[in-house]
Amino acid sequence: MQEQNKEINTDFEVRSLDAICVNEEHVQTPSWHNLKYLAFGMLFGIILIKSEVISWFRIQEMFRLQSFHMFGVIGSAVVVGAISVFLIKKFNIKTIHGEEVILPEKSFNKGQIFGGLMFGFGWAMTGACPGPLFAQLGYGATATLITIFMAIVGTWVYGLIREKLPH
Amino acid sequence: MIELIRQPWPWYVAGPLIGLMVPALLIFGNKSLGISSSLRHVCAACIPAGISFFNYDWKKEIWNLFFVFGVFLGGIITVYYLKNDAAVVVNPSLMQELSTYGINDYSNLVPIELFNFGALFTLRGFILMVVGGFLVGFGTRYAGGCTSGHAIMGLSNLQLPSLIATISFMVGGFIMANLILPLILSL
């Protein structure tokens, strides 16, 4: 048991190197509970498409400062998200399983600048960040398969050479 | 009602709904919104190749793959039930600029002229899909997150590194769209 705990902790360390999702439910839930994430994902996909924030054309507009739309979406999403997080902290709101809500702190490294710029380039080229890629595919832009495949390759190559990159 | 949903949603409807994803995931499963990690989990599941970065128990993050598959299904549902047949309306000066590159089809989320399997064999199509996709995957992982993980989730939690990352995303996008993309599209 002791050994097992230790293993889990090491694993957490590895994942938290840079993963943004290192959260783990400590309450054991049956695997069908994952279906709720499927439902949230579907909702998220529909919102992304209907608001056109994953349209290549809208992205071009944003980066040319020709429309307020994208800035309005991201800005209001952050405001609502920030108020929600504030309320969760302030009133110590628990999860539906009665757990403490975990909000991981991020630490600065140069990757946020170098990697951020690279992603910015890719964003303006493909008109998509990772989430939208999957929505674009579902929406019938089949050539997005290539972009998704290359994004996976990019992630893999990063993993391969990350020790050599400045962080 | 359904007619209203079919119309493009204004920013003040979509933005707050996206923002509500943050507390929804936290309260229903103690998860931080984030999508680009799913690409890492795919690598860890399929081709770990002994790389330490992919040597972790990806099954613990399987919720993320469910979420991403949901996003894909959301796209399908929208096509079948919620599609609005009108083309996306963008700034006329953008349309004018794009038409000089032969981009006139606004019927899909991406310009069909640029993103199709045939275009893969043209220089500009190759650069946009292959190089662009690579930069998305490499860049998000190097930055430790994407628009959802940093810009939405990270900023909601008032994380300074996420602000730095978000500013870098925007700066990169501005440079690409205004200075480099015109050259690529002219190829």
Question: What does this protein structure show overall?
Answer:
The complex is a heterodimer of chains A (167) and B (187). Chain A has 167 residues and is mainly α. Chain A has helices at residues 2-16, 35-50, 56-63, 69-90, 111-126, 130-138, 144-161. In chain A, helix 3 packs across helix 5 (111-126) and helix 6 (130-138) packs antiparallel against helix 7 (144-161). The longest helix of chain A has 22 residues, at 69-90. Mean pLDDT of chain A is 85; it is low at 1-16. Chain B has 187 residues and is an all-alpha fold. Chain B folds into two domains: 1-83, no CATH class; 114-187. Chain B is built from eight helices and no strands. In chain B, helix 3 (37-46) packs across helix 4 and helix 7 runs antiparallel to helix 8 (160-185). The longest helix of chain B has 26 residues, at 160-185. The mean pLDDT of chain B is 92. Classes of the chains: A mainly alpha (167), B mainly alpha (187). At the A-B interface, helix 1, helix 2, helix 3, helix 4 and helix 5 of A face helix 2, helix 3, helix 4, helix 5 and helix 6 of B.
Keywords:
heterodimer, A: 167 residues, mainly alpha, 7 helices, globular, disordered N terminus, B: 187 residues, 2 domains, 64% helix, 0% strand
